[in-house]
What does this fold into?
Amino acid sequence: MTENDAHDEVFMRRALALAARARDCGEVPVGAVLVNDGQILAEGYNQPISSADPTAHAEIVAIREAARLLDNYRMPGTTLYVTLEPCTMCIGAVMHARIARLVYGAEEPRAGAVVSAFRLPESGQYNHKLTVQGGVLADVSAEMLRAFFADRRR
It folds into this structure.
């Protein structure tokens, strides 16, 4: 395991803790952590139901918090850790914020916009290049999502 892999696991575990918070609030369990120079800059978890805001995905919540803290809509040099492959809305926000690196856990086969349903970061439509690492603690994230939806179906 490289040093980068170890850092990725640490920050993904924090994102998973945030996903558990979303789950405990009745939201789809997705968490996100935005990191700058090895320090957590901002965090978020899914809140569209509780906030009555369809854009309140974990990634957007974290990006908005970081933008307020930085007083800037651009976040070069940062890494976003998210437990689930981002959707089209969220990958658009990541690209426009100029986040340098995206690390995600589980793939989202129906709506994932990184490698699953779409491949937006490599589409050539953005003038920003995003480094992507998928599959970090994917099994833990996927199991949390499976259990959440199984509970909802009961």
Observations:
- The mean pLDDT is 94.
- The CA atoms of residues 106 and 138 lie 4 Å apart.
- The two ends are 40 Å apart (CA to CA).
- Strands lie at 31-36, 39-45, 78-84, 101-106, 131-133.
